[in-house]
Amino acid sequence: MSEHIITVNGLEEYPKAAKWFKEFLQQGRIFAFYGKMGSGKTTFIKSVCEELGVEDTINSPTFAIVNEYEDNEANTIFHFDFYRIKSLAEVYNMGYEEYFYSDAFCFIEWPELIEELLPEEHIRVDICENDDETRTIKVTVNN
Known about the structure:
21% helix, alpha/beta
């Protein structure tokens, strides 16, 4: 297991963090983003998608549960927000396996609500809001 950390001092540094994060896209397809409400999960995912050349409007799929984007190399990106799910049955009914076991990137917000369904080989991304209003982004890769 390896851990990688970057500190983000403000919104203007998210593009720099997204460039840094791109190296991890070669190490996996499933990314589980952990963090409290308002910690910056959606903002960071938006920056990563922009770095990948996504031209669509990127926003949280809170009500839709999943949004689909395409990057500048025609790779599919699925962006999930499981905050509003009430049971794992909802996730089974949406056919999560087709998403998680495709060749697409899957960026998952609120993965703790579906943790038992996450593939073992997922990459964990923790976003923590610090007292000085910076954010610490920690990426944990299981090698």
